[in-house]
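Hi! If you just cloned this repository, the fastest way to understand the data is to look at a raw example. We've pasted two of them here, unedited. The first protein comes first, obviously.
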Amino acid sequence: MSTAEAEATGPLKGLRVIELGVLLAGPFCGQLLGDLGAEVIKIEPPGQGDPMRDWGTIKPKGQGLWFPIVARNKKCITANMRTPEGQQILKDLVAEADFVLENFRPGTMEKWGVGYDVLSAINPGIIMIRVSGYGQTGPSSHKAGYASVGEAMGGLRYVMGEPDRMPSRAGISIGDTLAATYATIGALAALEHRRKTGRGQVVDAAIYESCFAMMESLIPDFQFGDYVRERTGSILPKIAPSNIYPASDGMLIIAANQDTVWRRLADLIGRPELADDPRYATHIARGEHQGELDAMIGEWTHTQTCEALEVACEAGGVPCGRIYRAPEMLMDKHFAAREAIVEVEHPVLGAFKMQNVFPKLSETPGNVRWTGPDMGSHTLDVLHDILGYDDTKIEALKAANAI
């Protein structure tokens, strides 16, 4: 699939996003909007670019493998926001844009003279998406806010890991992507508001609040019961049976905490009488005897293969599944049938496999049109074709180190 051949198919086709910012919290929001069809113009500092271009453990042929995903479907241009000429490029783009997206420390855009007050005066319908560690207001808003700190402040880090050691992390940049996802939800809600009123607004997405939003009944647990959630490893307290269990050749998850499903699992393990045993008959009772219940199920699972357990659980109507890694995903028939993994042409690496666009829409599905492009590869196209700059003006911008 080449850039020239691929056209947007998603419901946001015809909308334009001007993306500033680096790394993940802002750019992942841009990825989501681009996946759904929006034209995303990513602005990077000339000669520097987004550090995400170099991130990743594996770098075949010197190519980072993260940027081609987070910058997919985007047009990349260079403009120096620290120069008046670069700032004017942004202002000219905003005049015909729908969203401007940034994830700098609060106050940075204002320092450059391109805050919301300035941009909304140019385009009253502009929706400014602002992603930061602590939000745009409040006593901590001025602090640098990385995802790890936001995850900690939002309560997520404390509950992750085993109870007998320091908190763990998710193994992915979950704080960044959660903030970007909430920013996307806010952007789409603001778009609907603009449809009704013609007015744009600021979408203020904080990493710590995006993590905090996922924390279920954490606050009322403490408010009404002085209960502080602790790390519990592979289980949720009082939710049983639902855990990772050993097989003779691996491990898999079995989730049978609902009363009717627990009865089916009791039949499978050859202990149907346990379904009516007062220690296990109800959700609350099973929660009180969670440890012994898991031990009992583990004694049954460890003598069988993962395949045998999957077959038995499926036949018995008990949810179960293996713990997938990349190799299992690439071999899985369900992933293939759902086209969960898409293959896109990379200019250096050739066929490049990555996760597809989610969720799936029946009438206007999103699509991956190209991988993250080289820095500045669309600068001349955008300046010529979108802004109408002539060659003389573009040469002057080059001379001013603005592009």
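Ok, and the second one:
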Amino acid sequence: MKKHHSYITAVAALVLALGGGLFVANLRSAEATAKTAHFARPAQSPVAPKSSAVDLNLFSAMADERVVDAVKNDLATCQAALNAAGVVFKQVANVQEGQCGYQDAIEVKASLTELTPNPGAPEHLPMTCDLAARLHMWERHIVIPAAEKYLGSPVKEIKAFGTFQCRNVADTDKLSEHAYAKAADIASFVLADGREISVLEDFYGKDAKGDFLREVRQRACDLFDVTLGPDYNEAHRNHFHLDVGGDHACR
């Protein structure tokens, strides 16, 4: 009888111990679930948007030539893709300045980060929809994860020297892609913790800032037709030139 009682007592103790362990585990699980993610890492496999067959949220879109062709060659498809990705933009009036100008351009008002003019740059940043779509993919799939990886803080702002400017490529008689609002010159990145990572000051740094800048420049080559930076020449020592003009270069 005593043995039977001891057996029951042992079983009861085991059940209580297991139950207590599960209770604690559940509490820990609930606590972990309740925590807000520290970084603004975008979802890699969201639900496909209903308004467009082109989903800029998907990492695989970067390597899909059909996506590039779709946003480049069909304005309605491009704008639907931006809307589906949550990019807020407005249409801007057409501009013609001699051989320079653009049609059906937009200005991005809100995205995952703010795109703002660098001090001294033109106030407005008009660009083709194609350029806006690729900038969004670069921001989402490359810039934000790289900032988390190297710098431990989300990017809240990307500063640009400009997009549209009626001028030639330096030291040539050929019009720049800026003359058609098909290029952006990126000067720096402002983090949520207040740090500013500058192409001019930090690109060659042997630290996390330099690692971040070199990665986002190199991987921009996967998205843009032409990517140029400080390694290219002195004229690009303070910015990344990113364009969708159709030529191809990664330097």
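That's it. A detail worth noticing about the second one: The radius of gyration is 25 Å.
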